[in-house]
From TrEMBL:
GO terms for molecular function: ATP binding; phosphorelay sensor kinase activity. The keyword Chaperone does not apply. One of its GO terms (biological process) is regulation of DNA-templated transcription. One of its GO terms (cellular component) is plasma membrane. Keywords: ATP-binding, Cell membrane, Kinase, Membrane, Nucleotide-binding, Phosphoprotein, Transferase, Transmembrane, Transmembrane helix, Two-component regulatory system. This is histidine kinase. Its main location: membrane. It catalyses: ATP + protein L-histidine = ADP + protein N-phospho-L-histidine. It is found in: Cell membrane.
Length: 528
């Protein structure tokens, strides 16, 4: 195909060159004839014309023949105003009237053209002949044989064809080299095979349940399958855009671009937890795969919650057993008054803790979580206290989300405070209009200033990974939840004067439902 195209282009170029060449050569011949005629029409020839008669040996014929031989013209004809020839290559034609119309040169005009005369077809040039006073006394007609022009054209064709043949040879060699390179690049596959492979690839990419993102050497998205579009929240229009422009800055873009290296890298995109792997390609790009671990992480967190509940129940069971043993000893020693006082005090402490939480935390889910966390904290020797200014009404927009935030922060605070000399945790929840401000502080070692942003990165943790999955997601999910509601989360030193502990502050601007709307819904429910 490439050879046929090269041949066709060469033939077309040759034809386009030859087409104007004939007319160019004709024009050159006519201009040459005209130049010879202008040179011949000299004052000396005009003087000889006025001072002699037309004859074979006359001065006009002699001068005309000299010019014809020197210039290689076919003929040089000099005529008077009557059109009578004074010179001609055939002496018998001298004294005869010319065979073509001499009116134009006799009228003072220069004429060029291809004409047919007694000597055949020729390229001609005609000019007027003037005396010293400028009067027209005759005309000069010079002809160049037309066949000589054609011979020049035909003589130029071999050289032209040689150049065309050389160009064709170069084109054929280039076509051969391109063809070989193309075959190597396509592994000698036919067009039908390539088309079938492309169809199979499209079916496979869009059929698998893993996200696939292909990037070129410049970091632009080359293709994304349907699952990758779903996991990343992008549409087909993202293809061809730079990765950072499509995803925005963040860990997900860093992982896919290769700025974060490793296997099975954890990243959070929206509310999804993704596991990413990246494989570079020979052209400088890469192919990244994404797996959705959101459900697995949710199951893992539910397992953590269940384990926490079991720990709380175990702690209560242990505490209850100790109290029952103490009560049994008091009864066996017949210390009835002391037994009644002990039972009253034990029940009062537990009730006081629960009442303290429920009075200040009106949402049942969050209150239940804090009661359970208080039991676990007591078992681990950590004092969990609700700040005196805490007050949260029962009109949370997303109570489960806030439970996740509080649970993660309290779990981290328990781990940090357990190893301190005076282990304690303080929780403060404030509500103003529709904004909720949550503060969780502990007596642990605190967070170094250089790590206060790093701890919110997906996959970063100082703890050993659990059996069910990976760590480093809790604080990342806290930040994503806060940012999704237009809020923020930050960490600072809990007690700057004492030099210890960490304080996490979460601001959620739209966490509470409107009070009037909540009241209206409650009234409607009561009427029903």
């Amino acid at each position: 195909m490439q050879l046929a195209i090269a041949t066709g282009v060469t033939v077309l170029a040759t034809g386009l060159f030859l087409a104007p060449l004939s007319s160019q050569l004709d024009d050159q011949a006519m201009r040459r004839a005209l130049a010879i005629a202008e040179t011949t029409a000299s004052p000396q020839v005009a003087e000889d014309l006025l001072g002699s008669e037309p004859s074979e040996n006359g001065p006009v014929q002699t001068e005309a023949e000299r010019i014809r031989r020197n210039t290689g013209a076919e003929y040089v004809v000099i005529m008077d105003r009557r059109g009578v020839r004074w010179s001609h290559t055939d002496p018998e034609q001298i004294g005869e009237v010319v065979s073509t119309d001499p009116s134009q040169p006799l009228a003072g005009r220069h004429v060029m053209g291809i004409d047919s005369g007694t000597l055949g077809r020729s390229a001609r040039g005609k000019v007027p002949l003037r005396d010293d006073d400028g009067r027209i006394i005759g005309a000069v007609s010079v002809g160049i044989e037309y066949d000589s022009v054609r011979e020049r054209l035909l003589g130029a064709i071999p050289g032209l064809l040689a150049y065309a043949g050389g160009a064709l040879a170069v084109g054929a060699l280039a076509a051969y080299m391109i063809s070989r390179r193309l075959q190597r690049k396509t592994h000698d596959l036919a067009f039908s095979d390539i088309s079938a492979l492309l169809a199979e690839r499209e079916a496979m990419l869009h059929g698998i349940r893993e996200g696939v993102v292909a990037l070129d050497g410049a970091g632009r998205i080359r293709l994304m399958n349907d699952e990758a579009q779903r996991l990343l929240g992008l549409g087909p229009e993202a293809a061809g855009r730079l990765l950072e422009d499509a995803l925005g800055p963040g860990r997900t873009a860093d992982v896919l671009a290769g700025r974060v290296t490793g296997e099975d890298l954890v990243t959070v995109r929206g509310h999804r937890v993704l596991i990413a792997n990246r494989m570079p390609t020979d052209d400088g790009g890469a192919v990244a795969t994404l797996r959705d671990r959101t459900e697995l992480e949710q199951l893992g967190r539910e397992l953590d919650s269940t384990r926490g509940l079991i720990d709380a129940l175990r702690a209560q069971d242990h505490e209850h057993a100790n109290r029952m043993h103490t009560l049994l000893g008091l009864l066996e020693l017949e210390m009835h008054e002391e037994a009644v006082e002990f039972v009253t005090e034990a029940v009062g402490v537990h009730r006081a803790t629960a009442e303290q939480v429920t009075e200040r935390i009106r949402d049942p889910l969050l209150a239940s979580l804090l009661v359970g966390k208080a039991t676990v904290a007591a078992e681990r020797g950590v004092s969990l206290r609700i700040a005196s200014g805490t007050l949260l009404p029962d009109r949370l927009v997303d109570p489960r989300g806030l439970v996740t935030v509080v649970g993660n922060l309290v779990d981290n605070a328990l781990d940090a405070a357990a190893a301190s000399e005076d282990p304690r945790i303080e929780i403060e929840v404030l509500a103003e209009d529709r904004t909720v401000v949550l503060r969780v502080s502990d007596s642990g070692p605190g967070v170094p200033a250089e790590q206060q942003e790093l701890i919110f990165t997906e996959g970063w943790s100082t703890k050993e990974p659990p059996a069910h999955g990976r760590r480093g997601l809790g604080l990342a999910l806290v930040r994503r939840f806060a940012e999704r509601q237009g809020g923020s989360v930050r960490v600072a030193e809990a007690c700057p004067t004492a030099g210890g502990g960490a304080e996490f502050t979460v601001v959620l601007p739209e966490a509470l439902a409107d009070a009037d709307l909540e009241a209206g819904l409650t009234t409607t429910g009561d009427m029903r």
